[in-house]
Write a structure and sequence with these properties.
- It is a single chain.
- By secondary structure, this protein is of the alpha+beta class.
- It has three domains: 105 residues; 25 residues, no CATH class; 79 residues, Beta Barrel (Elongation Factor Tu (Ef-tu), domain 3).
- The strands form two sheets. It has a five-stranded antiparallel beta sheet with strand order 3-6-5-4-7, with no helix packed on it. The protein has a two-stranded antiparallel sheet with strand order 1-2.
- α1 packs antiparallel against α3.
- The protein is rod-shaped.
């Protein structure tokens, strides 16, 4: 099923579900039948009381007619209640159809865990992908991670959380200085150069730095 078809299905089932809910919540038929029956009962009661006081004031034919109206009203009440039960079941079915359509649409939607710029697209709309497959590569620009190295004697695990300054040069030769925080210090020491890797995260809301630029770092102890 195409994405457009799924969206149309969602819209259609949503409308059907809303109509079904309205029909289920509509109690007018039941109220009308109840009121009509109450009126018919009252008329029958008055007729019987009148005959009790003054025999044959109301003919047997009229009494039969009033009894029939009461019976018809009671049947109308049961019919209205039955129709509301059917409307309730229909409403549940329509709601389930709508939820199923939403689930199908959700399976066709993707959301990135971060904001950024799409720099590579691996699959095009309409292509089939497996769960977990990469469909695009996104680079975050508003917050960057600076990776650097320190001598093992200085790269202590206690540096995590310490403030740091990042110095770089813009493309037009202007100096850039941003502040950040040490978020990671590797517990491993490189056996070749006796250095440890550290990560520093900085806010780059003004987009002064670009991924891939070189910079120097000063960690404030």
């Amino acid at each position: 099923m195409r994405d457009e078809d799924v969206r149309l299905l969602v819209d259609r089932t949503q409308t059907s579900a809303e109509i079904a809910v309205r029909e289920f919540e509509n109690e007018l038929n039941e109220h009308y039948a109840t009121k009509s029956t109450e009126v018919a009962r009252a008329e029958l009661k008055r007729a019987m009381e009148s005959n009790a006081k003054y025999p044959k004031t109301v003919s047997q034919t009229e009494l039969d007619r009033l009894r029939l109206l009461v019976e018809q009203g009671e049947l109308e009440i049961k019919k209205a209640q039955h129709e509301r039960q059917i409307a309730g079941l229909t409403s549940e079915i329509r709601q389930n159809e709508y939820q199923t359509a939403l689930d199908q649409l959700t399976l066709r939607q993707m959301s990135a865990p971060l904001s950024g710029m799409v720099v590579e697209i691996y699959h095009r709309p309409g292509e089939w992908v497996q769960p977990g497959d990469a469909v695009a590569r996104i680079i975050r620009l508003d917050r960057l991670r600076v990776e650097g190295f320190l001598p093992a004697s200085q790269g202590k695990l206690s540096l995590v959380g310490k403030p740091a300054s990042v110095y770089a040069t813009s493309e037009d030769g202007q100096p850039i200085e941003l502040t950040g925080e040490v978020v990671f210090v590797s517990p491993e020491i490189d056996p070749i150069n006796a250095q440890v890797r550290i990560w520093i995260e900085i806010d780059n809301a003004d987009l002064q730095l670009r991924p891939g630029m070189t910079a120097s770092v000063k960690v404030r102890l």
